[in-house]
Structures are given as structure tokens and as C-alpha cells.
Specification:
Elements (H helix, E strand, L loop, with lengths): L8 E5 L16 H14 L6 E4 L10 E5 L4 E3 L6 H13 L3
Parallel strand pairs: 1-2
Antiparallel strand pairs: 1-3, 3-4
Bound molecules: FE2/S2 (inorganic) cluster.
FE2/S2 (inorganic) cluster (FES) binds next to loops.
């Protein structure tokens, strides 16, 4: 099993805008992605800190997820990509800061 980082946190943007002219991660399914990530971590026996957050400034490319501190973004994090997101997450959480 990959080592887990005790200092990093996974942030999933669940910001919701109601204007059709303004994209937001929640409208694109980020709440479902967050739910699936939590379920998948249980299945894989991982316990990464994971939190929902407000806008990460990547609205046009969302749903957006970021590992912080120091992590990259995963953009376009739709529920259908849950396996790809999990593989990325395991890699990000295992990196040194
Ligand atoms: S609404 Fe999610 S990054 Fe802006």
C-alpha cells in the first residue's frame, strides 16, 4: 500500500453557481466525485484527509481537485473518471513536498 502523507489534504471544489453564464464545479458533478472518492478510499484502505472547498480558480476546467500544500490540480474530475483520479491521487499523496 502506498505511504500516506499526514501533512497533505485533498481539496475538492464543490462551489456552485446558479448562473448559466458562470461555470462551477458542483454543476459539473464534483459533489458526486467527492462521494465516490471517499468510497474508493475506503475500498483501497486509504485515509487521506479530504475536504470540500470553495472555488479553486479553475472553474472553466472543473471539476477541480487539488492536493495541498504543493500539489498539482486534477481538472475535469468528473465522476466517470474516478479510477483515473484515484491513481493520480495516490501518486500526488506519495510525493515529497
Ligand atoms: S468553481 Fe470550482 S474551481 Fe471555480
Amino acid at each position: 500500500m502506498p505511504e500516506k502523507s499526514s501533512e497533505k489534504t485533498v481539496y475538492v471544489c464543490t462551489n456552485r453557481r446558479f448562473s448559466l453564464d458562470s461555470p462551477s464545479c458542483a454543476i459539473r458533478g464534483s459533489e458526486k466525485t467527492l462521494e465516490l472518492l471517499k468510497q474508493e478510499m475506503v475500498k483501497r484502505e486509504l485515509s487521506y484527509p479530504i475536504e470540500k472547498t470553495i472555488c479553486l480558480g479553475q472553474c472553466t476546467f472543473g471539476p477541480a481537485i487539488r492536493v495541498a500544500p504543493g500539489g498539482e490540480f486534477f481538472l475535469g474530475a468528473k465522476p466517470a473518471k474516478i479510477d483515473e483520479i484515484m491513481d493520480w491521487l495516490v501518486n500526488e499523496m506519495g510525493k515529497e513536498d
